[in-house]
Specification:
mainly alpha; 2 strands
Length: 237
């Protein structure tokens, strides 16, 4: 592997040659210390080089695209209209919205929206006996963005050093990158007063206990409305 470092992804810190040489499990760790400016630089490089005539640039762009796919999809979702619409719907949902007089399609929509959010809660999934369908955005719904503080950075760098011992043929590259990051720590962690930010879903997530109670009502009501049961008979149960 050449030591020439003329093409930088993050100038003076991570080069194209570094990315080409780094094992994927080490590269995956970069997403855990990627502040806004690092993510922006990575995405710009990928956009500009994914179809490059330069083989090294193209290979590096391809590896980065795969490594950052989940982070980018999560960021895109949390800033999307879909996330805002879901948050608004759940924050505004009240017990009084669930009744025998509510349209069955609306009741099912409420249930789907609540499950969309509660499916992020492992405790809920362990105890809920109803059906929970999969979602393309599963794992993306958080109250806050990742906490990119000093402790997180130190943990990731330590993991990189441990992986360097497992990947002896890549140890020089890994430790060189770790050293460059340590010299430029401020780029890989947010300021003390901005280690993370709340997302559009925060208020809805804080309401999850109420949403679980509303879900119980929906699970009771929906099959009875569908079966056109006598409301006067079962509403007293």
């Amino acid at each position: 592997m050449s030591n020439v470092r003329s093409n930088w992804i993050v100038p003076g810190i991570i080069s194209v040659n570094d990315i080409v040489d780094l094992p994927n499990d080490v590269l995956d760790l970069f997403t855990r210390i990627s502040t806004g400016i690092i993510t922006k630089r990575v995405n710009e490089f990928v956009d500009n080089n994914i179809n490059s005539d330069n083989q090294n640039n193209r290979q590096a762009a391809s590896k980065l695209k795969i490594a950052y796919e989940r982070l980018n999809r999560t960021n895109e979702y949390l800033s999307s209209q879909d996330a805002k619409d879901l948050a608004d719907a759940l924050v505004n949902l009240q017990y009084s919205d669930v009744s025998v007089n509510t349209d069955i399609h609306t009741l099912k929509k409420y249930r789907q929206q609540i499950l969309e959010l509660l499916a992020e809660d492992e405790d809920f999934l362990r105890t809920y006996t109803g059906e929970v369908s999969g979602s393309e955005t599963r794992g993306m719904k958080t109250a806050y963005t990742a906490k990119l503080d000093k402790s997180n950075l130190e943990d990731v760098l330590e993991e990189m050093r441990e992986l360097a011992l497992e990947h002896k043929e890549h140890i020089s590259t890994i430790l060189n990158v770790v050293g460059n990051i340590e010299k430029n720590k401020s780029l890989f962690k947010n300021g003390n007063y901005n280690v993370n930010n709340h997302t559009v879903l925060r208020k809805a997530i804080y309401k999850k206990d109420k949403l679980r109670n509303i879900l119980k009502g929906l699970d009771f009501l929906i099959p009875r409305v569908e079966a056109s049961a006598n409301a006067r008979g079962w509403r007293r149960l």
